[in-house]
Amino acid sequence: MKRPAAITDLQRFWKPALRIGRCASLIYVLSFTASIEGATAAAPASGLASWYGEELRGKPMANGNRFDPNQLTAASWYYPLGTRVWVTSRSPGSPPRSVLVTITDRGPAKRLVRQGRIIDLGHAAFKKLASPDVGLVEVTVHPKPSRSPG
């Protein structure tokens, strides 16, 4: 499985930032997010998707809103907040299913990104791709093309 360049960048810079201290980690996360938003915002990515639900209901997300597991939302490090992306399942033996979600939070956790996880879907979005009992599903993520003004 080919990893997006952003994962390689995360692995290369995250550990040194942790050694320097908490402040440097925060600065790194902010610069890492900015570089992802600028450099890889239009790039499709393939990897694993997971879901999160009731345990986080009402908690604040990175975009400032409260999480609702019934909305079609997702957490990703690879796309700017507010970006709409198509998430398509790639499970062998079953037809591909797609869902359009909005990036509202940051995630998955760094240790999970290193294991190939590229997006966390809200419960409602994951149910459109697979049974939540599955837990993880192989996906391809494509940003929805934005309409040009005029």
Summed up:
This protein has 150 residues and is α/β, with parallel strands linked by helices. It has helices spanning 5-20, 22-39, 110-113, 123-129; strands at residues 45-52, 73-75, 84-89, 98-105, 117-122, 137-143. Helix 1 (5-20) runs antiparallel to helix 2 (22-39).
How would you characterize this protein structure?
The chain has 150 residues and is an alpha/beta fold. Helix content is 30%, strand content 25%. A six-stranded mixed barrel has the order 1-5-2-4-3-6. A hairpin with an 8-residue loop joins strand 3 (84-89) and strand 4. Helix 1 (5-20) runs antiparallel to helix 2. Mean pLDDT is 78; it is low at 6-40.
Class based on secondary structure composition and strand pairing: alpha/beta
How many separate structural domains? 1
The quaternary structure here is: single chain
Write the CATH architecture name.
Beta Barrel
What is the topology?
Layout: H1 5-20, H2 22-39, E1 45-52, E2 73-75, E3 84-89, E4 98-105, H3 110-113, E5 117-122, H4 123-129, E6 137-143
Salient structural properties:
Barwin-like endoglucanases; 150 residues; alpha/beta; globular; 30% helix
